[in-house]
């Protein structure tokens, strides 16, 4: 798969994520998708398979009234992509950590994508 195809798949995924388009996201994922989220160096979420991913994605979508990932840099090699991400979201609900509905969250991080059989087979988010 050439770099432009990988970039197109990831770009479509990010666009679907930003617009809460669950079906659009799922259409780009391999059936055996593995997802891991790391915050402050520790893994705080992991899913295996498209159904577990969907359940986490649907729960997560309920937390935000808006969200936007912006890719700021790309590194693509051997079917893998590492993208630098600026993330901004508005909370729809109060969180246990004290953040309140209506507050804005801004983060910088990176996401690592691995492509299998023309679909996203692994996503690791780091913030």
Automatic annotation (TrEMBL):
<dbReference type="InterPro" id="IPR037401">
    <property type="entry name" value="SnoaL-like"/>
</dbReference>
<protein>
    <submittedName>
        <fullName>Nuclear transport factor 2 family protein</fullName>
    </submittedName>
</protein>
<dbReference type="Pfam" id="PF12680">
    <property type="entry name" value="SnoaL_2"/>
</dbReference>
<dbReference type="InterPro" id="IPR032710">
    <property type="entry name" value="NTF2-like_dom_sf"/>
</dbReference>
<feature type="domain" description="SnoaL-like">
    <location>
        <begin position="12"/>
        <end position="120"/>
    </location>
</feature>
